[in-house]
Amino acid sequence: MKGVLLAGGRGTRLRPITNTRPKQLVPVANSPVIQYGIEAFREAGITEIGVVLGNKGRERIQRFLGDGSEFGVDITYIVQGNPLGLSHAVGCARAFVGSDDFVLYLGDNIFEDDLSELVTGFANSEAVASVALGNVDNPQRFGVADVDDQRNVTRVVEKPDDPPSSLAVLGVYAFSREVFDAIERLEPSWRGELEITDAIQLLLEDGLTIRSHVVDGWWMDVGKPEDVLEANRHLLETNGPARADERVDESEIPDGVEVHESATVEDGTVLRGPISIAGDTTIGDGASIGPYTSIGPGTTVRNAHIENSVIIGDSKITTENEVVNSLLGRGSTVKSANGMPADSPRLTVGENSIITL
Amino acid sequence: MRIIALTCPSCGTIVAANELEEAVLMTCPGLECEETLGFEQLSEADRKHFIEHLDQYRL
Ligand SMILES: [Zn+2]
Predict the structure, then answer these.
(1) Residue A69 — φ and ψ, nearest 5°?
(2) Residues A154, A119: Cα–Cα separation, whole Å
(3) More exposed terminus of chain B, fewer Cβ within 10 Å: N or C?
(4) Which of A78, A83, A194 is facing B14, going by the closest CB pair?
(5) Which residue of A has its CA nearest to B21?
(6) DSSP assignment letter at A252
(7) Which phi and psi angles does A143 have, rounded to 5°?
């Protein structure tokens, strides 16, 4: 079994953050989103991974992932270039996959559950594909699957007005090589892309079996700033629930607080877990951090109260106002407006911005 | 739709035909690979198909 991880896409819904970094490298709980996909593969025993790159930010993704050895996997790069659709991306991976089965994972997705149930269920079946499904309240906004009483997929429809179920197609699939022949028979959709749902529909029309695997745990397609904050909150929660304020004295770090060994947390700082503080970071002068906050590397925080936010890194936050529900790009500065009152605006701030609050 | 791509003979990196066509000649985008890749390295049949259906491979 091989892995194909999609790391293309333009990330338009995450602008301005994605003006300067691919969305797959936006950190959540101080690890880039794409790292969660790589780790999910490795934990399922899949270590041969093809990473499909688009035409944006690919050198940065390659610099981060390298040959995969740092993550315990072996990476082959596949340059798709133009974003011609998920089925096109998969088709480009054909020579890498060969005659193996493979798991396709969309690189902006994070799953709480591991992949092993999907993978072993598929490997032990006669099915040519398995699709991860999740129950959603708003199926009209998703690809939706209809399933029979054995949970085999009978139909997939894209953003239906009248959804046949509440089961949305999520960003992870298992396929056998039959999918490549289906993709060759596809025509581009109205938006000029080769759609993965069309390939699945063709396999069904060929009379082949497609399993489904309903994901019980939390999952997220990290597309918008609020998704980054929500994913951050969920991932930090694995360190435990929100805590009461705890003042740090004599370097005592409260529960639920991850602090890198090269970070400096001065006495008198208030830390309220769950939070993550990366290396080369200084928190002091009565700053108050948390809950649900990740402070990226190279950041200085003084005075400010930061809550439910992601600070990507190399930032300086000295405002006396609150920074709440905010996503701050690398190198941003948030300073105080000399006693001018402000009511905690929600910020999404691109790289190297300066905000006076 | 036929998906056309070239596999680097040195490192196994795969490059889609649309990328090759745009660059004419490119250094392999694989990590630390010095191989030169070009559209001309695709088979004649692939090149012909690509050029005849160019609109499908562009956005
Ligand atoms: Zn190469």
Answers:
(1) -60, -30
(2) 20
(3) C
(4) A78
(5) A81
(6) P
(7) -70, 135
Whether residues B14 and A95 touch (CB distance < 8 A) is answered with yes
Residue to test with chain B: of A64, A75, A77, A87, most B Cβ within 10 A:
A77
**Contact assessment for residue A168 and residue A144, using Cβ atoms and an 8 Å cutoff:** yes
φ and ψ of A18, to 5 deg = -85, 5
Locate the domains of chain B by residue range: 5-57
**Record: fold of A243-356:** UDP N-Acetylglucosamine Acyltransferase; domain 1 (2.160.10)
Q: Mean pLDDT throughout A149-167?
A: 94
Q: How many residues does chain B have?
A: 59
Give the SS3 label for residue B32: coil
Tell me the three state secondary structure of residue A88. helix
Distance between CA A182 and CA A16 in Å, rounded? 37
Which pLDDT belongs to residue A251? 58
pLDDT digit string (tens) for A208-254? 999 999 999 999 999 899 999 999 999 999 866 666 666 666 557 77
Residue A339 has pLDDT above 70, yes or no: no
Ligand 1 center–CA A46 separation, angstroms:
23
Interface of B with A in 19-48 (CB under 8 A): 19, 22, 29-31
| A79 vs A74: CA distance, rounded Å | 16
Q: Provide CB contacts within 8 A for A65, sequence distance 6+.
A: A34, A38, A51, A71, A75
CA–CA separation, A337 and A319 (whole Å): 7
Within A71-127, strands assigned E span 74-79, 102-106, 109-111
Which of A260, A109, A257 minimizes the C-alpha distance to A172?
A109
pLDDT on residue A351: 80
Structure tokens at A152: 């085999």
Q: In sequence order, what are the residues at sequence separation of 6 or more whose Cβ sits closer than 8 angstroms to the Cβ of residue A21?
A: A57, A60, A330, A351
Residue among A249, A299, A171 nearest A309 (CA): A299
Q: What is the mean pLDDT of residues A346-352?
A: 79
**Domain-wise residue ranges, chain A:** 2-235, 243-356
Q: Residue A81 and residue B13: Cβ atoms within 8 Å?
A: no
Q: Does A92 touch chain B (CB under 8 A)?
A: yes
Predicted ipTM of the assembly: 0.96
What is the average pLDDT across B29-56? 94
CATH of segment(s) A2-235: 3.90.550.10
Lowest mean pLDDT among A51-55, A76-80, A176-180, A235-239: A235-239
If you average pLDDT over residues A345-352, what whole number do you get? 79
